[in-house]
Design goal:
about 425 residues; alpha+beta; Double Stranded RNA Binding Domain; DNA polymerase, domain 1; hpI Integrase, Chain A; 3 domains; 5-stranded antiparallel β-sheet; 3-stranded antiparallel β-sheet; 17 helices; about 45% helix; elongated; disordered N terminus
């Protein structure tokens, strides 16, 4: 084969922002001479296409769908195809041959490896693999990835769509990502069989119509001070970690992974780096006096070494980070202790289920609302996104000092120092 001829339309290049927001049907050419275009269908589906001439014949090659295949990735794939043609080979034929041999299971391995930098944590990576191993691979694993069709994907999703809707919805997105990787890598062509809009959306009910939102059971406000006193009476590093979680309204993973390098005992601020945050954004936590004192006590513990900046503040008994279940185990033991003395325990008022560590964030949020704290300030304390992406881009303040006063008041509430005029109210436990 001889050299390549490309689409002569070389105009203004597309931008990542345009690719992210364009919705009008049409063909949008990317400048640069690679013949790359973004095709937006009337159904709303979008896909990358490269027009290229191979041995005098114009061909169209699918390169996957955004956002799974980014603009940069589509350009790189288009460039690879150009190089293949210039070397005298046919990328379409190479793809066709590859599709005969690559299974969905192998494609999944490649896709997971390609996405490794995007996973927020080992737990996120394990969740990806677990859902695929449990539901997708038994059905799709041995199929050639280029032959996986919508009917195949439905065989995976339909049995769990109404019973495990959130899991099924996430699984669909993961299958879509694998098939998009396979398209971009040249192992399949055409529409993505796991695409939702204009495809599976026509055959499955919307997730929000069948899924019942299940909230983490939260501690009732009236139980807070008694629960906190019971917690403080418990020994062990996990109990102290749970106490610190309650004082800061942080997530379990943020507390368990906390190192001395993140703590500034001079200013009383704990700074959680972006790579440990769910939103991938640095988060500063003002430390109330009780939270500060708790850290000081951890610093002088027999096995503590605050000079070792990489050492976890709340180390596991055998070293390293506390397990994901350690804080939950403390709450379960506290619940059982209440039941053993004839009390109902620490129950969520809405669901009647025993409260869990993550539910303390909900308790904190309810308290801020009852006390009249500004919504944005409360959401910032929980490290939630506040406002639109544009608003967040222009906001420079995280209300640190205002949040410091709020967290001090929260620590007083936990400790039972809740004033109503000159009266201090204390909660009373309910018996079964």
């Amino acid at each position: 084969m001889s050299g390549a001829s490309i689409n002569p339309r070389i105009g203004k290049s597309l931008s990542a922002a345009f690719v992210r927001t364009v919705r009008d049907p049409g063909k949008y050419h990317d400048g640069g001479g690679l013949g790359l275009m973004l095709r937006v269908e009337p159904s709303g589906s979008r896909r990358w296409v490269q027009r290229i001439v191979i041995s005098g014949r114009r061909r169209e090659i699918g390169l996957g769908t955004p956002p799974v295949v980014t603009l940069a990735a589509a350009r790189e794939a288009a460039l690879d195809n150009m190089r293949t043609v210039q070397a005298g080979n046919d990328p379409v034929a190479i793809r066709r041959n590859a599709r005969t041999f690559l299974t969905f299971a192998t494609a999944a391995e490649h896709a997971i490896a390609a996405k490794s930098s995007e996973f927020r944590s080992d737990k996120h990576r394990k969740q990806w693999r677990s859902t695929l191993d449990t539901y997708a691979l038994p059905i799709l694993g041995a199929l050639p990835v280029g032959k996986v069709n919508t009917a195949d994907v439905l065989r995976v999703l339909e049995p769990i769509w109404t019973e495990k809707t959130e899991t099924a919805s996430r699984l669909r997105g993961r299958i879509e990502a694998i098939l998009s990787w396979a398209t971009a890598a040249g192992h399949r062509e055409g529409e993505n069989a796991a695409r939702w809009k204009g495809n599976l959306s026509e055959m499955l009910p919307k997730p929000q119509r069948v899924a019942k939102t299940v909230h983490h059971p939260a501690l009732a406000s009236s139980d807070v001070s008694v629960w906190y006193a019971a917690l403080r009476g418990r020994d062990g590093v996990a109990a102290r970690a749970l106490e610190f979680l309650a004082l800061t309204a942080a997530r379990s993973g943020e507390v368990r992974g906390m190192t001395w390098a993140e703590v500034d005992l001079t200013t009383g601020v704990w700074t959680v780096p972006a790579d440990r945050m769910k939103a991938s954004r640095e988060h500063r936590v003002p430390l109330s006096a009780p939270a500060f004192s708790l850290l000081e006590s951890m610093a002088v513990a027999p096995d503590a070494d605050p000079t070792d900046c990489g050492r976890p503040v709340f180390s596991a008994p055998r070293g390293g980070v506390l397990s994901d279940m350690s804080l939950s185990a403390v709450m379960r033991r506290m619940q059982q202790a209440e039941i053993d003395v004839g009390c109902a325990g620490w129950l969520d008022r809405a669901s009647g289920r025993p409260a869990v560590p993550h539910g303390l964030r909900s308790t904190f949020r309810d308290w801020t609302a009852e006390c009249g704290y500004p919504r944005d300030m409360a959401e910032m304390a929980l490290a939630h996104d506040v406002g639109s992406a544009v608003e967040r881009a222009y906001r420079r303040s995280d209300m640190l000092e205002r949040r410091r006063a709020m967290m001090a008041a929260w620590s007083d509430f936990l400790d039972g120092r809740v004033e109503t005029g000159d009266v201090v109210s204390f909660a009373v436990r309910e018996s079964v």
